[in-house]
Design brief:
By secondary structure, the chain is α/β, with parallel strands linked by helices. The chain has four domains: 211 residues, Thiamin diphosphate (ThDP)-binding fold, Pyr/PP domains (Rossmann fold, 3-Layer(aba) Sandwich); 165 residues, Rossmann fold (3-Layer(aba) Sandwich), CATH 3.40.50.1220; 218 residues, Rossmann fold; 30 residues, no CATH class. The chain is built from 25 helices and 23 strands. It has a six-stranded parallel β-sheet, sandwiched between helices. A six-stranded parallel β-sheet has the order 14-13-12-15-16-17, with helices on both faces. Strand 18, helix 18 and strand 19 form a beta-alpha-beta unit. Helix 3 packs parallel to helix 5, helix 8 crosses helix 14 and helix 10 runs parallel beside helix 14. The longest helix has 21 residues. The model has no long low-confidence stretch (mean pLDDT 96).
Length: 656
């Protein structure tokens, strides 16, 4: 018998050599066959748990992959997610850290990736498999089970988790990792823990293990039965609504989705992940849908008798806690994931969006299906109403206390004048957003994730080019904005990238702004500073509660209840950015804003525009309701009223 050819490598060397030889192939949105390397590179934050063993593997085996130094483990992993999302899941980064807190810092990022079905490979150092030197530095011991380390926490937030306790396990674990990372239905974070001793241990690996492997990201075809069932539902629709989910973008189904809408005259609403698959100017584009959506899509959603969801997970925001749609509306869900396709008691079409929409379209053409003139008139009217509202919000100007009504006119209305008194600034948030939207390049990419900006942007942002709207809202991870902007810039180096970030998110995590300076990847941080956790204050107060820990005012002496009503904290965020090496601007007027945006375009280093905006001047939301946990028993009449409103809406919402 002929013996297989082998090569003796450490586990770390083998892992890096394997990653260098992984490729993907797929059909892009233009119908072209594409093949390229799958792993672009590695983000590394070194520590004692990976700087010896794994770093040696990188030094010896690295060929085409690039290596970047992270500044915070969560931040670098979020940058990797931003990269993969902007690449429509067709290329990824790996992230490696030391054992202990470095590894645990990536748990949040892993959850962010998995919630959004975005592939990222996490390779943290781990405790010793031999246990001989235990307890080692940063080891969390569990007396009842010595096999457990802090890394077991990754099991709850990944789509695949492994621990390589012997060097030969690299082979099975990495093949399983690649299977999940390239799975259109079930991708997400993959974490492979690397014990410190095993990283350096050697094995005689088969040479064939390191051959070029091409992982096909295929288009799953629609079955005959699913096709028949879907056509049966859609052909009777009088007021249909298409939902353009993130799956449209990841499946490269932009053109097929657009053609389907045009062929049958069906208007569509956009989810946060699906927005910018089609330009906002398209006559059938009703814009954002759901709690953070706009007037047009939500009005049609209320009336729709058939909803065709393409690549959407139907989160509570997309469905307004299942209240947005008629209880008798029928759903057809097109998704490669069976789990997602069966939601909303739908007719499931477990298939690729291109394949399914093409096949369904061919059958609908045979029977001559098309929406009628009354439907088209209603769609046009909804779009006009939306355009008029966007134009209004683009030009909101503070006048004076007596005649100015903020968009969020709640019990904390006083904070508007307090902000003006303490800071001297009067800019309104929607006006600032509209100015940015108007002034930046058509192909510029905007990145956001949390706070009030997702609500403003899904409803009001006008994407003039495809794939220019980058919103993480599956996990709404504060701190994603700047890190992911770096990742998006790495994916699209020839496009300007703007991180749309509130002061709350900036405070939490902006470490990869330093990385952007270090690596020469220019990003533009648009920092909306209203000295508060604005959208959460709106939610808190709107449900009858006091302002507990949601305003960034000075703590007054003797106050212990979390209600901070002292002077507004005035953080010089521009100075922070300048200290890192950014070109920065402080903006307090419309003229300063416009000048800063124009000048930032001319810069070659990352920029930060510190924009002081009034609280309560974000958009208020349209035709929606969100189920939140309002107290069932309270001494406050305001809370009692909010609870009653919740209960009333529950009877109107679908229950599953």
């Amino acid at each position: 018998m002929k013996h297989m050819e082998t090569v003796r490598l450490t586990a770390s060397q083998a892992l890096v050599r394997f990653l260098e030889n992984q490729y993907v192939s797929y059909i892009d949105m233009d119908g072209n066959e594409v093949e390229h390397k799958f792993v672009k590179g590695i983000f590394m934050l070194p520590g004692h748990g990976n700087v010896v063993g794994f770093a040696n593997g990188v030094e010896q085996e690295l060929k085409d992959m690039v290596v970047y130094q992270g500044k915070n483990e969560q931040g670098m992993a979020l940058a990797a997610i931003g990269y993969a999302k902007q690449m429509r899941r067709k290329q990824i980064f790996a992230c490696t850290s030391s054992v202990g807190p470095g590894a645990c810092n990536m748990v949040t990022a892993a959850a962010t990736a998995t919630a959004n079905n975005i592939p990222v490979l996490i390779l943290p150092g781990d405790i010793y498999a031999s246990r001989q030197p235990d307890p080692v530095l940063q080891q969390m011991e569990q007396p009842h089970n010595l096999t457990i380390s802090a890394h077991d926490a990754f099991q709850a937030v990944t789509k695949y988790w492994g621990r390589i306790n012997r060097p030969e396990q690299v082979m099975t674990d990495m093949i399983s990792a690649m299977r999940v990372l390239t799975d259109t239905a079930n991708t997400g974070a993959v974490a492979i823990s690397l014990p410190q001793d095993v990283q350096a241990e050697a094995y005689d690996y088969p040479v064939d293990f390191f051959k070029k492997r091409v992982w096909r990201i295929d288009r799953r075809p629609i079955t005959k039965y699913a096709l028949e069932q879907a056509v049966e539902v859609i052909k009777n629709a009088k007021k249909p609504l298409l939902i353009c989910g993130g799956g449209v973008r990841y499946a490269e189904a932009h053109k097929v989705f657009k053609k389907f809408a045009e062929d049958f005259g069906i208007a569509f609403g956009e989810t946060q992940a699906g927005k910018s698959a089609i330009e906002w100017t398209h006559e059938l584009n009703l814009g954002g849908l759901g709690i953070t959506g706009g007037i047009a899509a939500n009005k049609l959603a209320h009336e729709a008798d058939v909803v065709i969801g393409v690549g959407t997970r139907y989160t509570d925001f997309t469905t307004a806690s299942k209240w947005l749609y008629r209880t008798d509306a029928k759903f057809v869900n097109i998704n490669p994931s069976e789990f997602q396709a069966y939601k909303m008691d739908a007719t499931p079409v477990v298939a690729d969006a291109n394949e399914a929409l093409t096949a369904i379209g061919e059958e609908l053409k045979k029977i001559g299906y098309h929406t009628d003139a009354a439907y088209a008139e209603a769609v046009a009217a909804y779009r006009k109403e939306w355009f008029d509202e966007v134009d209004r919000l683009d030009h909101v100007v503070y006048t004076d206390k007596e005649s100015f009504t903020p968009e969020i006119n709640d019990a904390n209305r006083e904070c508007v004048e307090k902000y003006i008194e303490d800071t001297g600034c009067k800019l309104c948030q929607t006006t600032v957003l509209g100015t940015i939207n108007r002034m930046i390049d058509d192909n510029a990419i905007v990145v956001a994730a949390a706070g009030s900006l997702p609500g403003d942007m899904q409803g009001l942002w006008r994407a003039r080019k495809t794939n220019t709207y980058h919103m993480e809202y599956g996990y709404s991870c504060m701190g994603y904005e700047i890190a992911a902007a770096l990742g998006a810039k790495m994916a699209c180096p020839d496009q300007e990238v703007y991180s749309m970030c509130g002061d709350g998110s900036f405070d939490m995590l902006h470490s990869e702004l330093i990385t952007s300076i270090q690596t020469g990847h220019k990003i533009n941080v648009m920092l909306f500073d209203n000295a508060s956790f604005g959208c959460i204050n709106n939610l808190e107060v709107g449900q009858g509660n006091a302002c507990i820990c949601t305003e960034k005012n000075m703590l007054e002496e003797g106050v212990t209840n979390g209600i901070h009503k002292g002077k507004v904290i005035q953080v010089d965020y521009a100075a922070i950015g300048a200290a890192y090496g950014c070109k920065t601007y402080t903006v307090k007027t419309q003229e300063e804003l416009e000048a800063a945006i124009e000048d930032a375009k001319k810069q070659t280093v990352s920029t930060l525009i510190d924009m002081k905006v009034l609280p309560k001047t974000m958009s208020a939301g349209y035709e929606n309701w969100w189920r939140v946990g309002v107290a069932e028993v309270s001494t406050k009449p305001e809370v009692q009223a909010a609870r009653k409103a919740i209960e009333d809406h529950l009877y109107e919402a679908r229950h599953y």
